[in-house]
Amino acid sequence: xxxxxxxxxxxxLPSPTHPDLLVGTxxxxxxxxxxxxxxxxxxxxxxxFTPIVDDARTWGRIAATNAAxxxxxxxxxxxxxxxLVAWPSELDLDLLTEVLxxxxxxxxxGGWIVGGGHTIDVAEPLYGQAVIGDIDPDRILTNAGxxxxxxxxxxxxxxxxxxxxxxKRSEPADIAPGGRxxxxxEAAVASMVxxxxxxxxxxxxxxxxxxxxVTGFGLLGHLHxxxxxxxxxAVVDPAEVPTFAGAxxxxxxxxVPGGTGRNLxxxxxxxxxxxxxxxxxxxxxxxxxxxxxxFTCTPERAEAALTALGxxxxxxxxxxEIISVGDGRAGDLLxx
Length: 336
Description:
Elements: H1 3-11, E1 21-23, E2 32-34, E3 41-49, H2 56-73, E4 77-86, H3 93-110, E5 113-120, E6 126-135, E7 151-154, H4 160-168, H5 172-175, H6 182-192, H7 197-205, E8 210-213, H8 218-230, E9 233-236, H9 247-252, H10 258-267, E10 271-272, H11 278-284, E11 293-297, H12 299-311, E12 317-323, E13 333-335
Parallel strand pairs: 4-5, 9-13, 10-13
Antiparallel strand pairs: 1-2, 2-3, 3-6, 4-6, 7-11, 7-12, 8-11, 9-12
Helix pairs in contact: 2-3, 4-6, 7-12, 8-10
C-alpha cells in the first residue's frame, strides 16, 4: 500500500489514546510503545511480504530481519516474536520449513525467541513476524524530534528495490556465480539480512534526536515523514547517499519497481529536486526491503557515530542536514 493511501485510510480512524500508550499512530512512527509500571516499556511491531528472492531460507531471514527493524528504529531490543504465514496448499511444505528456518536464524542472531505464530491458506505466500521488545521509556527514538542544524546519518546503502526487480525479471543464470547480477545480488542480500542492532546502538550513543528505518516508502518517503513529524525541512546531498555498486545501471536498464512511482507521488508536492536528473530522484525513491536506519544528531556527535558504524562494517554516511521551516513547509525535502 502506498504511503498516501495508508495516510488516507488512517486519517478516517480515531487516534488511539491511553495514558500508557507512549507512541501510537499520530506521527506514523515505526512501532507502538506501551508503558509498564514494573520495568522497561514494551515496543511492538509487525511486518510481512511476498518472496523477493528465489531461495526460501534467505527470504525467511530477510523477512524476520525486516520485521525486527522497527523495534531497533525505536531504540528497543527485540525479545520474542510470532510467525505470520500465508501459504498456498499446493506449495511444498519443505519450502515452508526452509522459510521458517531462515526466520529462526535471524531471530537467533538477534537474540529474540520465536514462540509460535499463525498460518492461513492463500493463493500467494507471505511471511513475516510480529515482534515484541523492550525499551527504556526515557530513551525512545521517534521520528518527531529532529532539530534544525542536525545532520542526517544513513546506516546502509539503498537500491534493494531495484535489485529485487532485476531478480524477478531475470533468468537464474543472471544471479548464479558468474552471472551479470551475481555480485550485486549478493551485496543486496548481505545488506537485507544485516540486523539494525548496531545502528540502533550508534543512534542511542549519539543522542539521536529522531530515527526511522528506510523501507517501502524509500529514502525520500521516510525522510518526508520524519521531517513532517518534526516540523522541519531536510536537505539531502544525493552524491553522499550510499548505493550498491551497479545499482545505477539497473535504472538505465529499466528495472525500476512500481512502488517507486507511488513513492514519488507521495513526496512530489514537498520535493525540490534542485536540478538533479530523474535517475537521482528514482534512486532516492527506491522502495527498500530491510533497509538501514536514518537518524538525526548534532554535528558534534555525528563523527563518532560514523566511526562506530564503519568499524562495525556498515557503509554509513552523512547525507544531509535538517533546516528550519523558514519560508517553506514542514516535510519539505531539498536536494542539494
